[in-house]
Amino acid sequence: MLWIALHLPLLSLESFAATLSPELNAQPLALMDAHRIVSANASARALGVKPGLKRATALALAPNITLGLACAARDAQALTAVAHAALAFTPGVSIEPARAAASAGAAGLEAADTVLLDVQASLRYFGGLPALLVRLQAAFAPLGHRLHVVSAPTALGAALLARVHPQLHCADLSVLQRALAAAPVWLIGPGRAHWEALQGMGLRTLADLQALPRSGLARRFGEALLSELDRARGLRPDPREPIRLPPTFDSRLELFARADTAEQLLYGAVALLARLVAWLAAQHAFVRRFSIVMAHERHRRNDAGLPATTTLDIALAEPSRDPAHLLLLLRERLAQLELPAPTLDLRLLADDIARRAPPNNELFPTPQSEQDGLTRLIERLQARLGPAQVQRLEAVADHRPERASRLRAADARIRMPVAADARIRMPVAPGKAGTANAAAGPHAEPAAMRPVWLLAQPEPLPERQTGPTLGGQPLQLLSGPERIESGWWDAALAERDYFIAQLPGGALVWIYRARLPLAAPASGWFLQGRFA
Length: 532
Known about the structure:
Mean pLDDT is about 80; it is low at about 105-110 and about 420-445. The strands form 6 sheets. This protein has a 5-stranded mixed β-sheet, with helices on both faces. α8 packs across α14. It is built from 17 helices and 22 strands. Helix content is about 30%, strand content about 25%. By secondary structure, it is an alpha+beta fold. The chain starts with a strand and ends with a strand.
């Protein structure tokens, strides 16, 4: 067996700091419980603020310190996100239960802050322990937690050593037992509960405990002390119940200060999206739709019938779990949202997911990757401008170029066909650029070459010696005619012969003349489009 313990020594402080701006995070920051400091960041510790100080003392040492309240529920949600991220590497993930407070005379339990991974069966798949550790660090980086990473043959041994070692790897039981022998006695639960008695007896390390008679230890401190020590050293079985993923994602985050603008909401939204991505990665899934629920300030809810919450739904054209893409869509939507009242609480909900193979990492772009890029571009434009403001060309079964396509609202979920022959250009809407095929059906012959840009109205061309000119320069006909006879049914008859012509400088244009002089309002040559 091989277990990896992920200990989060600053879990409570980091889960609170996730809602703060980078400016506040760089300043002194501390958490309180019962009017005493329980955790402080590096800036606060540099000014002398440390756990155990009273609130007034901390303010005297650091007048500009940001103080928050410790919250077990907030810490539990943050730890759950770490466990979900670990499930992407092994199904054997469990959370080490809360333990007795470490300080002498302290009562109650410390919050659970260690995640255990049974990785023995995963080592070969990920290329060994060093490669797996690199992957783990990359997966947990978006959650923003400092980690102590320890691997050992037993779950409890790894969990205990992770509390005192930032990084340690015990290859076998003998190495683990030597590391435990030098560990402080307060690591195990009974050692914390009987800290003062053990100190009085001169017992400071687990090796000191092991040197004493087991029967005497059991009578004085209880059988639990020996049981926990044996389980850590691999002398007793230590079964663990793995966690199970919830069927839907539901995570809540209370903001430190009320948010009056959408930009202020993004600090908390980034943390929630990181948790969502961890939940998706644990089941190799991608989200189709998610919602952000913003709970407004209570004393403003009764003013002018303001709603208690505002819900923002984000629907994706293609399922995704890319945090940068999800954040980009959320940022664009929030930029258009006008909050009816200040927001104090954020909640992210997601239950519409898709399970499929992850995308391949391609060395060179492929039609599939290019289509994915187009889909994300359309999603971003729709999020910023609105769905009705982003349009696409739709082919129409009509041979007349000016009627061969029409504009419709773009739907990023529709896959655009990729022409097998890039030389075939289809007619597009007048005044628009594109390559839509107008009249060709699934079994039609390939159309002739068409320009990518058509004029909104055909432009008459002067003639010189019965030949067309453009800008005073004669045009040389290269190919044609391509004959079009269509529109007799809607009083817009078109009987034209189209040619591809070239200017002396090499530019290509698309021109036509009426096949019969009476079939057009005016006879002569006309410019219909230009080739790119």
